[in-house]
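anyone else get weird line breaks when pasting these?? whatever heres mine. first is seq + tokens for prot A
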Amino acid sequence: MKKLLIVSGRSGAGKSSTLHMLEDLGYYCIDNLPVSLLPEIVAKLNAQKNIEMLALGVDVRTPQSDLMQFEDILEQLRQHGEIEVIFLNARDDVLLARYGATRRRHPLTDRYNTIAEALQAEDSLLSGIARHATLTLDTSNLNVHELQHTLSVKMGQNERMILILQSFGYKRGVPLDADFVFDVRHLPNPHWQPELRALTGMDLEVQEFLNGNADVTEMYNDILAFLLKWLPVFAASHRHYLTVAIGCTGGQHRSVYLVNRLADALKAQWPTQTLHRELKYWS
């Protein structure tokens, strides 16, 4: 079997949508099997040699005893080849809003008085899977189409570690899937320049404004030096992805500028992807 994925995550974070997208990409998908049965299922499918890409959905509905053995079961699955674990997450307030809009029942509703309590319990129960995730997706600010785009970007990997540079705005929350977060809100803000307010970090006028500031240059050089030093170390530890998030207030000017500038500096050495989380909010 060439590719084996486990797809898990908190209820309402997009696990089912992700499995549908993987199915469209050619994966054979099986959802909601008890974790303890996965080694047997994978061994049987592997023996048939007619399935090259398999994605297995796992969530909190699996027996709690199985969840507690996830690490051991993962080791058994690795006997059939390299395996990746995709974990879908979102902020509690977003999950509550999604449940309120759809009026769906949370899988743990029968055990807890409120959805908020069920979400907290679920977070704890799935922590063992989240801890072994090779790819975490924060869907708090994504619709289905944006999730599909983000998944396609992050799944487009080769044998080398992919560096994902993401801009974001603090006013909409810190990305839950970032490995490193750099705060650049202390840098001069083009938003306060009337002629630059409607532009973005992709526009030449904003770039020239930021290029001329010593603090911007120093911040860029420090982040670049950090990445140049530590990217080889993370790659040597068999990481598939490393996500570096850079945030300013609105995610439109400073963070976008720095993400693009860093991508230009690093793309010759590392497979690099850029994501601008707040793109849909740009006027």
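and prot B, same format (seq, then tokens)
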Amino acid sequence: MNLNKTMQRLTMTALLAAAAAALAGTPAMAAQLDSDARTAIPKDVQQIIVVDYRAMQNSPAAMDLKARILPPELKQLEQALKVSGFNENHDVEELAFAAFRVGDNNAKIVGIAQGQFSLPDIMATIKKNKVKATLWHTNKLYPMGASGMLVTFLNPTTMVFGSTDAIKPALDARDGYAPNLLTNPDMVQQMGTVDTQPLWSIMDQKGTQFMMRSLLGQASQLTDYETIKKRLLGSTYTMNFQNGVKFNLTVSTPDTFTAATMSSLLNAAAMYKKVSGTTVEKQAIDSTTIDSSAGLLEVSFVASDSEFSSLLQSPLFHSVVQ
């Protein structure tokens, strides 16, 4: 799997689903991972995305957008969830995806769903259908239909699901056989700055480097980006959809000079895109603020619901999600 490409599509999926929910007027809620969910994420995680799943499910526009740009790996996860016998429209409240590395570059994605699950009813259905569980440590893994995916319940409000080679490393982390997210202080610190938002994501250094190259486009050729990228430490983004659409991206660097340099490069990229962009795209760029402060690169985008709706139809949007 090409993890970098998948992460780009993952990011766009979550952002657009949240934005479409904003157009539907869904109120903002916090999307936080409980302690069991956090320990089920391996230490070497590249990106975590957490979204209020109710906002997605309540918006036909969000589901339509998600269907068009969802990476194949996540389509498999979501389809498995649908055929597993769980009523995700009512049971699943928050949905998270974590992309992590196993070995050198062997990338895996695991899903985590949180909500109010009626375990007695679910177990009764499993028993009725004569579904046999397999054990991994002390965890019972149940097949999710014919999808090839497995699911296990960490507690009555948290389940982990994914392919065999993704869910087992997640459970190794949760059960203490391998380091988990809580032993990664950089990612934990980043999470603490954003997890009160209805949609948030954190990225490690490699994920941030790839994202910034994509954002810079041709502007990355204006300087020695290969040197600068090593000074990008990590990033977070949030989206809030009360009273319009508000997106905030923060990239951590070790010093003021690096942050200021990245700010200049991004502003150059924005100016280049503005020259060749449509009226809608130019308006979007005008609504974007790029600045730096105390070693942080900060990008903010603010738009009304109608403005963002127009942007989704623009060539710029289609070129980003390809």
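btw re prot B: The CA atoms of residues 223 and 265 lie 9 Å apart. The two ends are 16 Å apart (CA to CA).
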